[in-house]
Give the backbone structure.
Amino acid sequence: MITHIANLNSRAARLIGMVAPAIMLAIALFAAPLQAATDEELSPMLMSPDAVAIKEVQFHQRLDNQVDVDAKFTNSDGKEVTLADCMDGKPTVFVLAYYRCPRLCNMVLNSAAKTLQAIDFEAGKDFNIVVVSFDATDTVEIAADKKNSVVHAFNRNGDAAGWNFLIGDQETVKAAADSVGFQYVYDKKSNEYAHASGIVILTPEGRVSRYFYGIDYPTRDVRLGLVEASQGQIGSPVDELLLLCLHYDPTNGKYGLAILNLVRAGGLLTVAAMVGFIGLSIRHDRQAAPVAKTPFETDSQPGAPPSHDN
């Protein structure tokens, strides 16, 4: 029996010896610190009327910063509204764009519309969209035309509910842009603006929650951003599970694997598997081990004392 237990312990030791290095290698590979992002990666610019102005139109993150939701604007119907009115206590996709922009703003708005229409959340019910023009020359009529074209760009029967296109005075617009770190510069030569590109997600209270840069906004990432910003008000158990596996990286505005969570989960599963294997091995070997006989037991009559022939 002692020899059998020693063999079992030796087998378990060999198993641990094989699995432990793999665990350590996984931790070394996946838990290593990420390389620092470059200035270009932290400042994703696509184009500018004046290349010299690029450094002045970066998108600086203001995560958790409070946007002035009481700021007053005019919507595409000509009514005076506040950001709070447009947000209506829901997570909100916040976009800064000027409506007569010939290039970049159109790409930003159309890409946002395409992404948001692909998400199975309902605009106006689960979340809202607020677009603010930073061009003081944009009018109510221009805002209304832009709203119509964007909402129907990828869905001719698109519902305009939840979409808000606003204009405002320079001071109010500048304050709103600064609160989310959005920069823009007017270029007199081209009569256009050099500006950053991307969308921002705000919490129902108006705090900056997530940034998505450039003109390509993955549906999964934006959906998860809205779920996080809603603080559990929208989303499904699947979304919650994904958020355990995925982590928002503010350096690139994307969701990636939550390496530490995966390493922890992998470690726990490995330990559980090892314990289970050892337990099953012990149980199997105990069942298979022969029962030792006492000196008084015989093969024909177990438990009977030996007989003596005369």
